[in-house]
Amino acid sequence: MRVLIVEDEPFLADAIQTGLRREGIAVDVVHDGDAALEYVTINDYDVIVLDRDIPGVHGDQVCGRIVAEHPQVRVLMLTAARTLDDKVLGFELGADDYVAKPFDFPELVARLRALERRNQPAAPPTLADGGVRLDSFRREVTRNGRRVRLSRKEFAVLELLMRADGGVLSAERLLEKAWDMNADPFTNTIRVTISTLRKKLGEPWMIQTVPGCGYRFDGSRD
């Protein structure tokens, strides 16, 4: 999952970014409405965490623009405006969810994952293909009952490939969804991550390279 945080308080924005990255979520941060609209145009986000009272273009206008121009992107308003009228207005603007500050971080993570699932075909939180079992809530992976310890990025890549249900994902798509804007698209990051992931899962290799196209997960090889 890739998330954009729109928050004008740098300390809070950094804290949310750090926490979400520890959950294996790719995160970018901007501090005003103008930058938010620019980033949404450039990058493919699953969810926008949006403060309403931000410099530049107001958060309400940002929400309206995203809903109109990028309907596939979910908007979670995270704001100090906590009255019932504020919440109703947020939903009327097109927000998908509304969390008032102060908030509990585990709840924020749970709400983000719930919003991400809305953009995908219905799928259980636990994925099983061949001998590989991936639990997206517990962040655990096993193969034939053996625990496989993965880094956050390795887990994110494996989850993307398994959710593709045998489809091919390009290196660019994996980089776009599992990393943030600091990732260099010209590095061999994806190739190295795939190679390490294969070794940790063990033979026979279940992640196949499709020349000129990308990678796919093939559970039938177990």
TrEMBL record:
Entry-annotated residues carrying 4-aspartylphosphate: D51
Keyword annotations of the record: DNA-binding, Phosphoprotein
Top-rank lineage group of the source organism: Bacteria
Domain named Response regulatory: residues: 2-116
GO CC terms in record: cytosol; protein-DNA complex
Classification via SMART domains: REC, Trans_reg_C
MF terms in GO: phosphorelay response regulator activity; transcription cis-regulatory region binding
Record-linked Gene3D superfamilies: 3.40.50.2300, 6.10.250.690, Winged helix-like DNA-binding domain superfamily/Winged helix DNA-binding domain
GO BP of this protein: regulation of DNA-templated transcription
InterPro entries: CheY-like_superfamily, OmpR/PhoB-type_DNA-bd, Sig_transdc_resp-reg_receiver, WalR-like, WH-like_DNA-bd_sf
DNA-binding span(s): 124-219
Matching PROSITE patterns: OMPR_PHOB, RESPONSE_REGULATORY
Coiled coil: none
Domain OmpR/PhoB-type: 124-219
Protein name stated in the entry: Transcriptional regulatory protein TcrA
